[in-house]
């Protein structure tokens, strides 16, 4: 006989572990990780405090999975990225830059509190080893374009990816330094700044 399902999950296809992750993900998406306690998560999930430790080593592990789930949810809302060999190369890079800045902007409220918790960040890094986050997809995309001959055969694609990722990280750092006011938090990177970055990545800055 299969074990009896927890009352809070009756009529729900999810496991209790999935329910706890979903609950924590919703809470950190709304309020961030700062001050998010085991008791608050358990109360919101409708379970006893100690239940969390039946499924996770500690609060950091639960929040790491919740943060990863939040990132995945944001990525689904952002849609698909260009495939190697399709369309115009410069236009594809602009799409990757827009996607990356939108992703970082969306996850910043949830991520900000995590920066003060090295344990949470370490657990977050370990939570998903699929190599399928936005940065990894960007590197794989550039490598594929190089293999297809649409980039120079000796193109330093990892360095190019770091330049693009750096722009997105700069957005987060600006928010940390200046606060999350709209004055320092534009809706998107300007078209001119995006074009300048794409030109620098594709053409370099040395004289020809």
UniProtKB/TrEMBL annotation:
Pfam families: TetR_N (PF00440). Residues 14-74 form the HTH tetR-type domain. Keywords: DNA-binding, Transcription, Transcription regulation. Residues 37-56 bind DNA. GO terms for molecular function: DNA-binding transcription factor activity; transcription cis-regulatory region binding. InterPro entries: Homeodomain-like_sf, HTH-type_TetR-like_transc_reg, HTH_TetR, Tet_transcr_reg_TetR-rel_C_sf. This is TetR/AcrR family transcriptional regulator. It comes from Actinomadura craniellae.
